[in-house]
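Possible regression after last week's pipeline update?

I re-ran a chain I had predicted before the update to compare outputs. Posting the input and the new output here so someone can diff against the archived version. Not blocking, just want to make sure nothing changed silently.
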Amino acid sequence: MPRRVMLLSMLLLLSPSWFCDTGSAQLDGAQPSKIAVVGAGIGGTATAHFLRQHFGPEVQIDVFEKEEVGGRLATVTVNHNDYESGGSIIHSLNLHMQDFVKQLGLKYRRSVAGKTAVFDGDAVVLEETDWYLLDLFGLWWRYGISFLRLQMWVEEIMEKFMRIYKYQAHGYAFSSVEELLASLGGSGFINMTQRPLSDSLVELGVSQRFIDEIIAPIMRVNYNQNVSIPAFVGAVSLAGAQTNLWAVEGGNKLVCSGLLKLANANLLQAQVTSISPLHTGETVQFQLGFTTDGETHSEAAYDVVVLATPLQDGADSGVRFHGFSPPLAPLPGAYQHTVATVVHGYLNTSFFGFPDPRLFPFASVLTMDAPELFFNSAASVCPVNISAGFRRKQPQEAGVYKVFSPRPLSKAQLKTLFRSYYSVQLTEWLAYPEYSSGQGLPPVELHPNLYYLNGIEWAGSAMEMSSVAAKNIALLAYHRWNRQADMVDQKDLMHKIKTEL
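New output (post-update):
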């Protein structure tokens, strides 16, 4: 969706001092007494954890969540087993997520091998085999060196992105998503948020066939969009399609509940409805209005508020801003609907060209961008707790499948994909932004001491992106509060860090 420029223009007119001089720290140097975090997904719970690290044990941290802890990390139950219905994979280079798992004493989930195919609506056009070298030869034979060019491109981007961990380990923060990206990859990363992935790949020398048969299916399953998605988002998606992926035993949402406990945060099962500034002399605090069990309440005197929930129109955050001067402009853009349907039944392998299900060798099927295809992917899924003797169900057996689609599946569509089924559970997500090239990036600072975490998703949506944003906001809030301007938006950080060492 095209993004309006009014908000960005207004923000550009605001000097950095606007964020520092209007009550952004107590004059006596005292630490904040109360902090509110709205949203208990991975972004909100990680923020609570990092805020506790930086502000210490005395500050009261309240986390508001209207639904389940975990947000888009969620599970559904089928036959007494739980299955991921939301975010299900984590990249091996996601250092914050790895650190969370280690601190919380969680375990990596045992992986269960399974082959993937790409379906064009008529036939399987690409399939994995049991032999890695044979797969490599097949890619080279069909696409030339396109896959090598793509792999080198993604690895270069990931190598630059990994700098964020050094910056954050040294305590540096960024006041905007643009500043963060520029510190990692200069103008190149900023430009990648403004141009289509397809253009970048063509310029890279990747063949159109490779884009249609490999890249487009990955974009469809990861972001429910096509290759017009911005290049940086596309790179994040492609990094998440690599083989070195993992998940948490018992469900990824355990990270969120664990981080809340680690942060010693107060969880309030409530829907935040309003945020208002409270002016006391030179100090600005916030009052939050919220509802719980149908009753309206309010809680005042929060020194810092972090919004870790989508605020764009249609995102159903329910949060309204009152009494701000100037008024906070609405954030342009929208979140898109993606449907995850978990089906317990018998896959109709004939639809994919395999009349005998015993000959169907694939655990997951991705789809090309074809008008007649009503789903993005269909995959046999494993429970979040995998016993030592677990084996994946064969296609001729009743198994549990997760189907991603842009809209809820009709009965006719379910009958197309499944010969028969015992149960169907549908989860409709506002999963990620509706990406378009040329869009701007939402602000991180909405007002002094009022921060917006989910703006990072407009650069790329993933668990680790939210974790990086959480660490950045905790550092930024700490430095703003303590007037440490030299730790925010510093240039040439790689050189600066080497000099410090």
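Follow-up from reviewer: compared with the archived run. Residues 1-25 have pLDDT under 50 and may be disordered. Marking as no regression found.
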